[in-house]
Every structure is written in structure tokens, then in C-alpha cells.
Amino acid sequence: MRILIATDAWHPQVNGVVRTLTSLARSAATLGADIEFLTPDGFPSVGLPTYPGLRIALPNRRKIAARIEAAAPDAIHIATEGPIGWSVRAYCRRHGLAFTTSYTTRFPEYIAVRSIIPASFSYAVLRHFHAAAAMTMIATPSLRQELSAKGFRKLGFWGRGVDTQLFVPDEPAKLDLPRPIFMTMGRVAVEKNIEAFLSLDLPGSKVVVGDGPQRAELQRRYPKARFLGEKTGKDLTAHLAAADVFVFPSRTDTFGVVQLEALACGTPVAAFPVTGPLDVIADHPVGALDEDLRRACIRALGMSRETCRNFALERSWENSARQFIGNLSALQPSRSLRPAHRLAGRSAVQG
After folding, report:
1. Is 258 left (phi over 0), alpha (psi -120 to 50) or beta?
2. Which CATH number fits domain 181-313: 3.40.50.720, 3.30.1380.10, 3.40.50.2000, 2.30.300.10?
């Protein structure tokens, strides 16, 4: 099967959506599926005042059509609700082509904390966007229940996984810091709720791995915390493995792949009992969930690192990719995309 995935989130961004799509493509290839990406590459872009450092693509209708036709896919999936996603959605609607979408980011909440636009308005827009899809893929039962209550329909599951060969407990970074080490990792931005972690009265050390628009402010307000900047690859793995507890303070993520990445490194998780942690951690002895985040952090300290690693080993990206491909294959043939003449190679699609 030849699959085209349209996404506004792409390298050099470092976030859960990009890591998920990259891992999906790698695992899908071992199952005989060829995934190509229609990304912002090759389009002009503009910055967003409310998201410093982040730029969005400005696609044009003609070039979007050319890229889709060059890919000649058997199926189209739209991963994000940005300009790329809306443009590909419009193309599919004009040509009567079936497509699937995924709901991976809580844009209504993100927008609400940065502007005067209420979440209810944003949810209405997203309901309209996803209503045209043959299926909207979501990662967890909690999110399905939540979106169903908000009027979203045709929801299907697509679970997430972890690269257990990259994320390993071996060779942790040597951090010359007082123990225990409580660590969080991700984009340092207001929607990630990192201040809820930094404001806790905890023993040992607090470490933040990542970068983003709120980093300078938080460094100034919490000088005792260590901000190590962005880490990738084995360097990231080594730091996750060096922590005693991974703290996931976000209340707005739809899943939180980084929780599985920390667990694969043998590090237990502390989080709020919200969508994402409720589905990943639940009542498994690999983390602690509590509205009192400090209490969750202290409880997580006593958990077995071996149990955390074994838990992650059961959640592979291959299983995630198999589920994703199965969702696409389940579309009615009469509604599936008819492959067009292949006009160009993969580079034309990626820009």
C-alpha cells in the first residue's frame, strides 16, 4: 500500500507528532507499506506571534494538487489541522476522495491560553474539519470518550509505540547533581504546564530537557532548576535513563509519547490523572498519578526500573503501524483513492 500523509508538523520541529510520524513510517516499511509525506518543505511560511519560533506553511492549491498527484497514493491521511491539512482536505473533497485524519494535539486549549479565542469556537472548527474524514484516529479510550461528548464522530483507534532499541536504560548520562533527579522533557511552552513541576517542593534536583518560548522566563524564575536544552538520539536516551523520576506535568496532551520513552529507559513516571497518563500509566506499577503532583513524584521514586522497561517492551511501533495500516485498509473500496499516474518521485512530495 502506498500512503500519503499530510502534516504541518515536520522536521526541524521536535515534538510528539513529528516523532510519531517518523517512527510510523519506519515501522510501516517493514510491513510492506510505503509512506510518503506532504510537508511544509518547499512552501513559503510565516511566524506566529503567539507561538515564538514556530512557523506555518502557506501552501497554494496548485502545488498541493501536483504533490498529491505525484505521490499517486492508495490512501491519504491528514495528520494535522493546519494549512497543509486544510489544503489536502480541500483537494480530497473536490475530487471525491476518501481520506482519514488523526486528532493528536489539543489546539483549542493551546489557543485559549494564548489568545481570547474560546476553546468552544476552536472545537467547532475542528469538528467541521474532521467530519469530512472517513475516520478520525485517536490514541486512547479517554480521548475517544472526551471527543464523543464534544460531537466528534467516526472515531477509530490508533495507538502509539516506543522505539525500544533507541530508548534503553543502558549508559545513563553522568549528571553531577544531588539525587533524586526529577526530570521533564519537551517543548518549554506555557501549554506544557512545566511551571507546575518547577514550583514543587521536591528533594534533590529538578531538570528540564528541551527548548521553547518560555525557557528564558522559567530559568529566571526558577534558578535552582537545571535547563539542559534540546537533546536528541542517544544523548536524549542517556538523560532519560539518568533520571530517577520522569515528571509529565501536561494537562493538554492527547497521549504523551515521551512517557513511553521514559519508561523504556527504566524511568517511572509521575503525572496528573488526565487523558494521556490515565491511558498510558493507568494503575500499572510504572508510575504514579495524582492531582497532587508532588505526591505522585514521591510515590514514583519507589517503583521498579525493570518493571518500567518490561512494560515499554510490550508497546512497539510495529504494532502501532499495523493498526494504522489496518484502519486505512478497512475503508470501503468504492470510497478509496484511485492511484493516479505517478508524475514524480518521493522528492517532489517532500519538497
Report:
1. alpha
2. 3.40.50.2000
